[in-house]
Amino acid sequence: MKGMNVRRLGILLSGRGSNFLAIHRAIADGRIADAEIAVVISNKPEAAGLESARSLGLTALAIPQEGKGQAAREAHDAKMIAALEEHRVDLVCLAGYMRIITPAFIAAFPNRILNVHPSLLPAFPGLDAQHQAFDYGAKVAGCTVHFVDEVMDHGVIVLQKVVPVLDEDTAETLSARILKQEHIAYPEAISRVLSGEYRIEERRYLKI
Protein backbone atom coordinates (compact mmCIF):
# COMPACT_ATOMS: atom_id res chain seq x y z
CA MET A 1 0.00 0.00 0.00
CA LYS A 2 1.25 3.46 -0.85
CA GLY A 3 2.10 5.83 1.97
CA MET A 4 0.23 9.02 2.71
CA ASN A 5 2.81 11.19 0.95
CA VAL A 6 2.34 10.03 -2.63
CA ARG A 7 4.50 12.03 -5.01
CA ARG A 8 2.94 13.04 -8.30
CA LEU A 9 4.84 12.74 -11.58
CA GLY A 10 4.20 14.65 -14.78
CA ILE A 11 5.50 12.82 -17.86
CA LEU A 12 6.31 14.75 -21.05
CA LEU A 13 6.80 12.82 -24.28
CA SER A 14 6.78 13.30 -28.03
CA GLY A 15 6.80 9.73 -29.36
CA ARG A 16 6.07 6.16 -28.39
CA GLY A 17 6.85 6.70 -24.72
CA SER A 18 8.97 3.64 -23.93
CA ASN A 19 10.62 5.40 -21.00
CA PHE A 20 7.19 6.49 -19.75
CA LEU A 21 6.09 2.85 -19.80
CA ALA A 22 9.26 1.84 -17.94
CA ILE A 23 8.45 4.43 -15.26
CA HIS A 24 4.87 3.15 -15.04
CA ARG A 25 6.09 -0.44 -14.60
CA ALA A 26 8.57 0.65 -11.92
CA ILE A 27 5.79 2.33 -9.93
CA ALA A 28 3.56 -0.72 -10.31
CA ASP A 29 6.20 -3.12 -9.00
CA GLY A 30 7.40 -0.86 -6.19
CA ARG A 31 10.79 0.18 -7.54
CA ILE A 32 9.54 3.78 -7.34
CA ALA A 33 7.78 3.87 -3.98
CA ASP A 34 4.94 6.18 -2.97
CA ALA A 35 4.54 7.72 -6.42
CA GLU A 36 1.93 7.96 -9.13
CA ILE A 37 1.74 9.40 -12.63
CA ALA A 38 -0.56 12.39 -12.37
CA VAL A 39 -0.57 13.36 -16.05
CA VAL A 40 1.07 12.50 -19.37
CA ILE A 41 1.46 15.40 -21.80
CA SER A 42 2.68 15.55 -25.38
CA ASN A 43 3.30 18.36 -27.82
CA LYS A 44 2.24 15.93 -30.56
CA PRO A 45 -1.43 14.84 -30.56
CA GLU A 46 -0.54 11.74 -32.59
CA ALA A 47 2.14 10.54 -30.13
CA ALA A 48 1.72 6.82 -29.45
CA GLY A 49 2.63 7.42 -25.81
CA LEU A 50 -0.63 9.31 -25.28
CA GLU A 51 -2.69 6.35 -26.44
CA SER A 52 -0.64 4.05 -24.19
CA ALA A 53 -1.34 6.35 -21.25
CA ARG A 54 -5.07 6.39 -21.96
CA SER A 55 -5.12 2.60 -22.23
CA LEU A 56 -3.63 2.48 -18.72
CA GLY A 57 -6.34 4.77 -17.39
CA LEU A 58 -4.03 7.76 -16.99
CA THR A 59 -4.83 11.38 -17.77
CA ALA A 60 -3.24 12.16 -21.15
CA LEU A 61 -3.19 15.60 -22.75
CA ALA A 62 -2.04 16.92 -26.11
CA ILE A 63 -0.80 20.52 -26.05
CA PRO A 64 0.56 21.34 -29.51
CA GLN A 65 2.42 24.57 -30.17
CA GLU A 66 0.46 27.10 -32.21
CA GLY A 67 2.62 29.20 -34.50
CA LYS A 68 6.38 29.64 -34.64
CA GLY A 69 8.98 31.80 -33.00
CA GLN A 70 9.91 32.67 -29.45
CA ALA A 71 6.51 34.10 -28.51
CA ALA A 72 4.80 30.90 -29.63
CA ARG A 73 7.29 28.80 -27.65
CA GLU A 74 6.68 30.85 -24.52
CA ALA A 75 2.90 30.65 -24.94
CA HIS A 76 3.12 26.88 -25.40
CA ASP A 77 5.25 26.41 -22.31
CA ALA A 78 2.87 28.59 -20.31
CA LYS A 79 0.09 26.12 -21.18
CA MET A 80 2.35 23.22 -20.19
CA ILE A 81 3.17 24.84 -16.86
CA ALA A 82 -0.51 25.49 -16.17
CA ALA A 83 -1.44 21.87 -16.92
CA LEU A 84 1.32 20.49 -14.70
CA GLU A 85 0.38 22.84 -11.86
CA GLU A 86 -3.30 21.95 -12.25
CA HIS A 87 -2.36 18.31 -11.71
CA ARG A 88 -0.19 19.21 -8.69
CA VAL A 89 2.95 17.65 -10.11
CA ASP A 90 5.93 17.23 -7.77
CA LEU A 91 8.46 16.09 -10.40
CA VAL A 92 8.50 16.58 -14.17
CA CYS A 93 10.05 13.74 -16.19
CA LEU A 94 11.03 14.34 -19.81
CA ALA A 95 10.66 10.98 -21.54
CA GLY A 96 11.54 11.49 -25.17
CA TYR A 97 10.19 15.05 -25.15
CA MET A 98 11.71 16.53 -28.30
CA ARG A 99 11.57 20.20 -27.40
CA ILE A 100 13.93 22.61 -25.70
CA ILE A 101 11.95 24.05 -22.82
CA THR A 102 12.01 27.74 -22.00
CA PRO A 103 13.66 29.40 -18.98
CA ALA A 104 10.19 30.18 -17.62
CA PHE A 105 9.36 26.46 -17.62
CA ILE A 106 12.57 25.64 -15.75
CA ALA A 107 11.93 28.43 -13.26
CA ALA A 108 8.45 27.06 -12.55
CA PHE A 109 9.91 23.71 -11.42
CA PRO A 110 13.37 24.45 -9.97
CA ASN A 111 15.40 21.27 -9.52
CA ARG A 112 12.21 19.33 -10.24
CA ILE A 113 12.73 18.44 -13.92
CA LEU A 114 14.59 15.29 -14.97
CA ASN A 115 15.69 14.12 -18.40
CA VAL A 116 17.28 10.95 -19.72
CA HIS A 117 19.83 11.30 -22.52
CA PRO A 118 21.31 8.40 -24.55
CA SER A 119 24.98 9.19 -24.02
CA LEU A 120 27.50 9.55 -21.22
CA LEU A 121 27.26 13.30 -20.86
CA PRO A 122 29.02 15.63 -21.40
CA ALA A 123 29.93 13.54 -24.45
CA PHE A 124 27.56 13.67 -27.43
CA PRO A 125 24.81 16.09 -26.38
CA GLY A 126 21.93 16.87 -28.72
CA LEU A 127 20.14 14.73 -31.27
CA ASP A 128 21.13 11.19 -32.35
CA ALA A 129 23.63 10.81 -29.51
CA GLN A 130 23.87 7.04 -30.06
CA HIS A 131 24.80 7.54 -33.70
CA GLN A 132 27.25 10.27 -32.71
CA ALA A 133 29.03 7.87 -30.36
CA PHE A 134 29.07 5.07 -32.92
CA ASP A 135 30.33 7.28 -35.74
CA TYR A 136 33.02 8.75 -33.48
CA GLY A 137 34.35 5.29 -32.70
CA ALA A 138 33.70 5.47 -28.96
CA LYS A 139 34.46 2.24 -27.10
CA VAL A 140 31.83 2.88 -24.43
CA ALA A 141 28.46 4.58 -24.66
CA GLY A 142 25.51 4.68 -22.30
CA CYS A 143 22.86 6.94 -20.85
CA THR A 144 22.60 9.79 -18.36
CA VAL A 145 19.76 10.94 -16.13
CA HIS A 146 20.19 14.57 -15.17
CA PHE A 147 18.39 17.58 -13.82
CA VAL A 148 17.36 20.05 -16.51
CA ASP A 149 18.78 23.56 -16.55
CA GLU A 150 18.81 26.31 -19.16
CA VAL A 151 21.59 24.69 -21.21
CA MET A 152 20.73 21.66 -23.34
CA ASP A 153 21.88 18.32 -21.85
CA HIS A 154 23.87 20.17 -19.20
CA GLY A 155 22.23 19.88 -15.76
CA VAL A 156 23.57 18.06 -12.71
CA ILE A 157 23.96 14.31 -13.34
CA VAL A 158 22.01 11.97 -11.06
CA LEU A 159 23.30 8.69 -12.49
CA GLN A 160 24.78 7.09 -15.58
CA LYS A 161 24.79 3.59 -17.05
CA VAL A 162 27.66 2.39 -19.25
CA VAL A 163 27.09 0.34 -22.40
CA PRO A 164 30.15 -1.12 -24.18
CA VAL A 165 30.37 -0.61 -27.92
CA LEU A 166 30.94 -4.05 -29.46
CA ASP A 167 32.92 -4.68 -32.61
CA GLU A 168 29.86 -6.24 -34.23
CA ASP A 169 27.57 -3.34 -33.28
CA THR A 170 25.70 -1.15 -35.68
CA ALA A 171 24.33 2.21 -34.64
CA GLU A 172 20.92 0.55 -34.40
CA THR A 173 21.99 -2.36 -32.18
CA LEU A 174 23.92 0.02 -29.94
CA SER A 175 20.86 2.29 -29.68
CA ALA A 176 18.69 -0.67 -28.68
CA ARG A 177 21.04 -1.71 -25.88
CA ILE A 178 21.32 1.87 -24.62
CA LEU A 179 17.52 2.11 -24.54
CA LYS A 180 17.34 -0.97 -22.31
CA GLN A 181 19.65 0.77 -19.85
CA GLU A 182 17.55 3.94 -20.01
CA HIS A 183 14.57 1.88 -18.87
CA ILE A 184 16.61 0.79 -15.82
CA ALA A 185 18.34 4.09 -15.11
CA TYR A 186 15.39 6.45 -15.29
CA PRO A 187 13.21 4.76 -12.63
CA GLU A 188 16.27 4.38 -10.40
CA ALA A 189 17.07 8.08 -10.73
CA ILE A 190 13.45 9.10 -10.08
CA SER A 191 13.41 6.98 -6.93
CA ARG A 192 16.63 8.61 -5.73
CA VAL A 193 15.34 12.12 -6.33
CA LEU A 194 11.94 11.50 -4.74
CA SER A 195 13.68 10.13 -1.64
CA GLY A 196 15.25 13.52 -1.02
CA GLU A 197 18.33 11.74 0.28
CA TYR A 198 20.86 13.74 -1.69
CA ARG A 199 22.55 17.10 -1.86
CA ILE A 200 24.03 19.06 -4.74
CA GLU A 201 27.45 20.65 -4.42
CA GLU A 202 28.29 22.76 -7.46
CA ARG A 203 27.82 20.20 -10.26
CA ARG A 204 27.96 17.09 -8.09
CA TYR A 205 24.94 15.04 -7.04
CA LEU A 206 25.85 13.36 -3.74
CA LYS A 207 23.77 10.75 -1.89
CA ILE A 208 23.21 11.46 1.79
Largest sheet: 7 strands, mixed
H/E element order: EHEHEHEHEHEEHEE
Sheet with the most strands: spatial strand order: 3-2-1-4-5-6-7
Distance between the termini: 26 Å
Which band does the percent of strand residues land in? 15-25%
Q: Mean of the pLDDT scores?
A: 95
Percent helix, as a range, is: 25-40%
Which structural category do the helix and sheet elements fall into?
Answer: alpha/beta
Main attributes of the structure:
single chain, Rossmann fold, two-stranded antiparallel ribbon, 6 helices, 208 residues, alpha/beta, 7-stranded mixed beta sheet, 2 domains
Give a description of the structure.
With 208 residues, the protein is α/β, with parallel strands linked by helices. It has two domains: 1-110, 3-Layer(aba) Sandwich (Rossmann fold); 115-208, 3-Layer(aba) Sandwich (Rossmann fold). The chain is built from six helices and nine strands. The chain has a seven-stranded mixed β-sheet. The mean pLDDT is 95.
Secondary structure elements and pairings:
Blueprint (H helix, E strand, L loop, with lengths): L6 E7 L4 H11 L6 E8 L5 H8 L4 E3 L7 H17 L4 E4 L8 H6 L4 E5 L11 H8 L3 E8 L9 E8 L6 H25 L2 E4 L2 E4 L1
Parallel strand pairs: 1-2, 1-4, 2-3, 4-5
Antiparallel strand pairs: 5-6, 6-7, 8-9
Helix pairs in contact: 1-6, 5-6
In short:
The protein has 208 residues and is an alpha/beta fold. It has six helices and nine strands, in the order βαβαβαβαβαββαββ. It folds into two domains: 110 residues, 3-Layer(aba) Sandwich (Rossmann fold), CATH 3.40.50.170; 94 residues, Formyl transferase, N-terminal domain (Rossmann fold).
